Amino acid sequence: MVFAGMLLLTAALLLVLLLARATVLETVRFQRLTAMAVLGLIVVAAAMFAAGLLVTGGAVLGLL
User: Has this prediction a pTM greater than 0.70?
Assistant: First the structure.
């Protein structure tokens, strides 16, 4: 579970770097929009994953 979260955060970081590079080089606007859309999806997935960990952790603590 932790590995999946780290993988999502790494992918988000790589997309942030690619987006910054695309902005500096002023490449095609479509590439920037695509990068932002994918980054948004990864951030949402990471947030859902984190919320799942919190809920699961809370459930485990509640059972103890």
Answer: no
Residue boundaries of the structural domains of the chain: 2-63
Listed residue (1, 8, 7, 3) closest to 45, CA to CA: 8
How confident is the model over 13-60, as pLDDT tens digits? Answer: 777 777 666 655 555 666 677 777 777 777 777 777 777 666 666 555
Return phi, psi of residue 28, to 5°: -60, 135
State how far the Cα of 39 lies from the Cα of 50, in Å rounded to an integer. 16
Cβ-in-10-Å burial (0-12, 13-18, 19+) of 35 comes to buried
